[in-house]
Write a structure and sequence with these properties.
By secondary structure, this protein is an alpha/beta fold. The chain contains 12 helices and 19 strands. The chain folds into 2 domains: 189 residues, Rossmann fold (3-Layer(aba) Sandwich), CATH 3.40.50.740; 162 residues, Dimethylsulfoxide Reductase, domain 2 (3-Layer(aba) Sandwich). It binds iron/sulfur cluster (SF4).
Length: 425
């Protein structure tokens, strides 16, 4: 694994660039991408689909469904935002500069900002806020972890190169043998990654009880619940206690069952407990469409994580009050500004006008008041995204810098310049 920033270096074949992928929180920085968007070598299916999108048809800016010039679309968006009383800035799928631009708009107009993955982000940050956690970096895990327990899901859907980049590091600096890798999760439908040494299969409904049992076993407590510890759980507890560097990995968006927040709490507590006698760390995987970047920009500007309202009295954070789902259900949102420059995530069906700031190839399934087409990070323009572990903002080079589309940052700045009033009250 390398943390060397890609430098858009020529890699042999004409026009082939070494690019970083912005799609999931692994932010792989070793993709060789040809000028046509073909990803060879190491790219996963998600990356291949992403870089190929630059070649698909480019759709126009629009006002009420009719094609419009960029200037007209920006002016229409600025007019709508100038008169909005409670605008909502959702999606936030953009590079770091794009997110900064959107937050500047939210700040000026008294809006609320939340990434489309904020529901999952808050499962983790709720625990950080209430109890704290001990987590590690990709490099530490790839080089030191000797026992890795992956909870809830085997992670390959959302993080296709997870095992390759973090688990199966043949050149680990500080361990001599491959790590023990135990999956504690419901059954999976495809063969497991070869790195998984044991799968302790549990039903979705029993996962919470089994993770609780694992914590009790690590504590050496008697487990009095009706749920019997699954076969292999006591052995796993012993392995984690004996490990030099145990890791508990999960993805908040893929935790099954009705109480994912409690699962995160238990996993954080397992790590804390292990650290009394040995070394262990959590690995909260996440970061689709630069979700971790959105948290970091909001945090460095306001001190809060996801779901922040920009009020005249200053920024405010409430993980429940500033949920778009909740606010839309109670009719509080009068304008949705939805940004999807990376993954083609559709705007939610809120009962209000929508300004869509979306990639040039993205078909929208719902009518919008204004559609502004923007470039895709790493395809159309350079930028930065934050990796899942939050310690590195990786630079993105541009596959095709000749795009006709603006960046999200440029579009946001143009709207900001066109506002006739701050909408905040
Ligand atoms: S694993 Fe994630 S970051 Fe890596 S190439 Fe695939 S989608 Fe991109």
């Amino acid at each position: 694994m390398t943390e060397t920033p890609n430098a858009a270096a020529e890699s042999g074949a004409a026009h082939t660039l070494l690019l970083t992928c912005p799609c999931c929180g692994l932010a792989c920085d070793d993709l060789a991408v040809g000028a046509g968007g073909a990803v060879d070598g190491k790219g996963c299916a998600i990356a291949k689909a992403y870089f190929a999108r630059g070649k698909t048809a480019s759709l126009p800016h629009a006002i009420a469904g009719a094609p419009a010039s960029y200037e007209e679309a920006i002016a229409a968006a600025a007019a709508l935002l100038s008169s909005a009383r409670h605008p909502w800035f959702g999606g936030l799928g953009a590079d770091l500069n794009g997110i900064r631009g959107l937050l500047a708009l939210a700040d000026r107009t008294g809006g609320v900002a939340e990434h489309h993955a904020s529901k999952f982000l808050m499962r983790n940050y709720g625990i950080v806020q209430s109890e704290g956690w001990m987590v590690s970096t990709f490099s530490e895990i790839a080089n030191r972890a000797d026992v890795i327990v992956i909870i809830g899901d085997d992670q390959r859907n959302a993080f296709p190169r997870f095992y390759e980049r973090l688990v199966s590091n043949a050149n680990a600096l500080y361990r001599d043998a491959p790590p023990e890798v135990v999956l504690l999760a419901p059954p999976v439908s495809t063969p497991l990654d070869p790195a998984v040494t044991r799968h302790i299969e549990v039903a979705e409904t029993e996962l919470l009880g089994q993770v609780g049992a694992l914590l009790a076993l690590i504590h050496g407590r008697v487990w009095r619940s009706k749920t019997k510890p699954a076969d292999g759980l006591a052995e796993l507890a012993a392995k984690l206690k004996a490990a030099k560097y145990g890791v508990v990995a999960w993805s908040a968006g893929a935790l099954p069952g009705a109480q994912p927040d409690l699962l995160v709490e238990l996993m954080a507590e397992i790590v804390r407990t292990l650290n009394v006698t040995t070394r262990a760390a959590g690995l909260p995987l996440g970061g689709i469409d630069n979700a971790i970047g959105s948290v970091q920009v909001v945090a460095w500007q306001t001190g809060f994580p996801a779901r922040v309202a920009y009020k005249t009295s200053g920024p405010d954070h409430d993980p429940h009050l500033f949920s778009g789902e909740r606010a839309a259900a109670s009719g509080e949102i009068d304008l949705l500004v939805w940004t999807a420059a990376i993954g083609p995530v559709q705007p939610p069906d809120y009962d209000c006008p929508v300004i869509a700031i979306v990639a040039g190839d993205m078909e929208l399934t719902h009518p919008t008041a204004v559609t502004i087409r923007v470039g895709m990070p790493a395809v159309d323009h350079a930028g930065n995204v934050t990796r899942s572990d939050g310690v590195v903002a990786l630079p993105l080079a541009a596959l095709d810098a000749n795009t006709k589309y603006p960046t999200v940052a440029e579009a946001s700045a143009a709207i900001l310049a066109g506002l006739t009033t701050g909408g905040r009250s």
